[in-house]
Amino acid sequence: MTDDAFPHTAVTDTASVAAKKALRRTLLAARAQLGPDELEATAERLSTHVLALPQLSPGACVAAYVSSGSEPGTHVLLERLREAGVRVLLPVLLADDDLDWAEYAGADALVDGLRRTRHPSTQALGKDAVAEADVVLVPGVAVSTTGHRLGRGGGSYDRALARVEGAFVAVLLHPGEVGQRVPVEAHDQVVDAAITRDGVLPLG
C-alpha cells in the first residue's frame, strides 16, 4: 500500500491517535510472523547498507538503538560500527519517555532499562548529545513516502529529533513497512530515508 494520494496534513489528535494505533497493530502482527532466519539475514544486510553510507567515516558519530523482538536487528550493526572506528551513541529511556544518550562500549556493557529496553552502562551524556551525531538511526513501525514515521506511540524520538540539525536521519524497517499511509500530527518529525534489507530509500 502506498500513500501517494494521502493528504499529509495534521489531522485531529483523536483521529490520528486511533488511526496510528490501528496501523501499528496490523504491522506488528505481520512482524510477528517473521522467522529467525529472515530476521538474521535482515540484520546482516542492514549493517552492510548502513556502513556504506557516505556520511560515515572513522571518527564519525552515529546515534542508533538496541533492537528487540522482530524489529530489524541492530546487534550486528552496532558491533561493526564500533569496529570501524565510529562513535556510537545509544538512547537511555527516561521516566517521562524522553531520551538521554550514552556511548556504546560493546554488548557486554549493556544493561536493562525501562520498558524492556537495553542501554549502555557508560555515563549518560545528556539529552542534547544526540545533536553530535552525523547519522541518526531510529526505530519505527512504518514510514510514508514523505518521511513521516510511525513509532510506538511514546513520542520519544520526535523529541530527540527536534534536537538534531544537519544529521542524516533514517528509520530502520522491513520492506513492507515503507510507503504506508501514516497519519500525521503537528509534532511529528520527518526522516530523510528508510533503510531496509533491500537498501537505502530516500524519502520526502
Question: Can you describe this structure?
Answer:
Helices cover 25% and strands 21% of the residues. The protein has four helices and eleven strands. It has helices at residues 13-31, 36-51, 75-83, 156-161; strands spanning 61-63, 87-93, 99-103, 110-112, 118-120, 135-138, 142-143, 149-150, 168-172, 193-196, 199-202. It has a seven-stranded mixed β-sheet with strand order 3-2-1-6-9-10-11. The chain has a two-stranded antiparallel sheet with strand order 4-5. A two-stranded antiparallel ribbon has the order 7-8. Helix 3 links the parallel strand 1 (61-63) and strand 2. The longest helix is centred in the first third of the chain and has 19 residues, at 13-31. It starts with 12 loop residues before the first helix and ends with a strand. The relative contact order is 0.19.
Dominant shape: globular
Which sheet architecture does the biggest sheet show?
7 strands, mixed
Instruction: For the record, give the distance between the C-alpha atoms at the N and C termini, rounded to a whole number.
Output: 17 Å
- List how many beta strands DSSP finds: 11
Strand order of the largest sheet: 3-2-1-6-9-10-11
Low-confidence stretches: 1-12
